Amino acid sequence: MKNTGIIFRKTMKDTGKNIALLIQFIMFPLMAVIMENAIQIEDMPEHFFVGMFAVMHIGMAPLNVTTAVISEEKEKNTLRVLLFGGVRPAEYLLGIGGYVFSACMAGAIIFAVLGGYRGKEFIQFLLIMATGIIVSMLLGAVIGIRSKSQITAATIMTPVMMVFAFLPMLSMFNETIAKIADIAYSQQIQLLLNGLASQTAPEPKSLIVIAVSAMIAAVMFTCAYRKSGLS
Amino acid sequence: MKAIEISEVRHHFGEKEVLKGITLSAEKGEIIGLLGPSGAGKTTLIKIITGQLIPSSGSVRLAGYDMRQPGKEIYREIGMMMDDFGVYERLSCYDNLKLYTDIYRIGAERISEVLKWVGLYEDRKCPAQKLSKGMRGRLLLARAVLHHPKILFLDEPTSGLDPATTRRIHDLIHQMQQDGTTVFLTTHNMTEAEKLCKHIALLHEGSIVEYGEPKEICRRYNHQNRLRVLLSDGTVTQLPNTEEAAEQIREYLLERRIETIHSTEPDLESVFMELTGRSLQER
User: Fold this and answer.
1) Is the same domain home to B150 and B229?
2) Which of A96, A157, A183, B94 has a CB 3.0–4.6 Å from the CB of B124, allowing a cystine?
3) CATH number at residue B201
4) A79, A92 contact by CB (below 8 A)
């Protein structure tokens, strides 16, 4: 695992110069900061925008960045050169994953601070966010591994991202969508975050849907990796 | 032990046989060239030799390592500059190489050394996406030699480059060879092959149609065996390369009429054309 840190640093440097990816990490935390301070509507739940944008952050940033980094490296054959250099596939994936997770969690901390969480609730908020980020990262890795080019990856990733990032928001306006969204992990994360904000106990259903989603994503990742590897 | 040993390598893409029993070898410190037009199978062969593709049959050994099941250690011994290997576009030349000195666990001072060697030291902070094609080629070469490889694979290293950059890369390849590195080069540029390679193999439709030293191959196909004499008045005369011509040449010499004398052996392009009916430049 010696090379994991090297890949982590490389990805940080590279995506740091890629505005299109960098913006993914800061877009929703920044929007939450602006909206929380700019819009005050009567009867609107407290920190309404924190929950909404936190779920969009989960559904978009880790999925998008993981897919983009892996598919770009595959298309440009820089990944192959890394593997020839002696980097193990696991080291590569952990390096990329570690970076995306850290950057997304930095956004999660902003949401937690903005939501006014302290102590145990702060940790709970971050744990919920971390779970969602990991599921999205696994889905992003599956798309990146299975795609032969960046264009293919973006074509597959965009609708997946739209579903998981925006379904929870749309479900607020339509009951049918809300019923469909019930099977999406991002919707259940939204419900968990709402529950945390209103200090109500989490529904078992939410935990089950998230756990099943995580398992499905892990199985999909394992299958994609075994079938295609990284080359 | 030879640096490169390729024995009876065959490869199929579906029904199509793209390599038909290739056997080749190279000694340590030798530059060997593989010449052929586009589609002859050069890149497929180099990918098989470097373990990027598993051949349908046959064997490849690099520095004694079996490349059908390449271990991690062999990639410390070889360097590759492949046409389709990319660089990190947004990272600087320095950072592109720093990644690999970290992976190879070699000191960062080697980066400056290699960048100076390929003439990119002044551009070390320049992002790869802003480099010209020639500079990018030199960056790829720098990355390939960063870890002091014993065998260097170069796939069309000067394809599409200007003459000055081409000359510079040729000089660098010569230096590598003088330092004891074995170089395996694919090209469709006969001048490059003649200039650099000790031995060349002409590849046509997956088979080696000729192998040997470039000059020796040209001599072998010198069917005319004549001398072409350019006289001072601009006339060109061809004489048989035998004793019969000696008196005539002596006369020209005494009259101080000779501008140049050349033998009429063909160049590699003509040899390839004679063997295959195709040009090396065909795409």
Assistant:
1) no
2) B94
3) 3.40.50.300
4) yes
Please determine, for residue B89, whether its predicted confidence score (pLDDT) is greater than 90: yes
Whether residue B229 sits in one domain with residue B212: no
Considering the domain architecture, whether residues B213 and B147 belong to the same structural domain is answered as: yes
Q: What is this model's ipTM?
A: 0.86
Q: Give tens-digit pLDDT for B37-76.
A: 888 898 899 999 998 889 999 999 998 888 888 888 888 8
- Return d(Cα B191, Cα A39) in angstroms, integer: 72
Q: Both B38 and B147 in a single domain?
A: yes
Distance (Å) from the alpha carbon of B104 to chain A's nearest alpha carbon:
7
pLDDT confidence tier of residue A231, bands split at 50, 70 and 90? low
Q: Which of residues 92-111 of B touch A (CB under 8 A)?
A: 95, 99-100, 102-104
Tell me, yes or no, if A1 comes closer than 8 A to chain B by beta carbon. Answer: no
Greater confidence (A1 vs A14) lies with A14
For residue B187, what pLDDT is reported? 87
Range of the domain at B252: 224-264
- Straight-line distance from the first to the last Cα atom of chain A, in angstroms, rounded to the nearest whole number: 19
In the predicted model, is pLDDT for residue B126 greater than 90? yes
Calpha distance B91→B100 (Å, rounded): 13
Same domain, B184 and B79: yes
Alpha-carbon dihedral angle through residues A186, A191, A193, A198, given to the nearest 10 degrees:
170
B102 assigned to some structural domain: no
Question: Mutate which of B73, B103, B145 to disrupt the A interface (most A C-beta within 10 Å)?
Answer: B103
Same domain? For B146 and B260 the reply is: no
Local structure of A58: helix, strand or coil: helix
Q: Contact A86/B95, CB-based, under 8 Å?
A: no
Say yes or no: B148 and B234 in one domain: no
Torsion of CA A22, A27, A30, A32, to 10 degrees: -150
Q: β-strand B226-231 against B207-212: which pairing, if any?
A: unpaired
Number of domains in chain B: 2
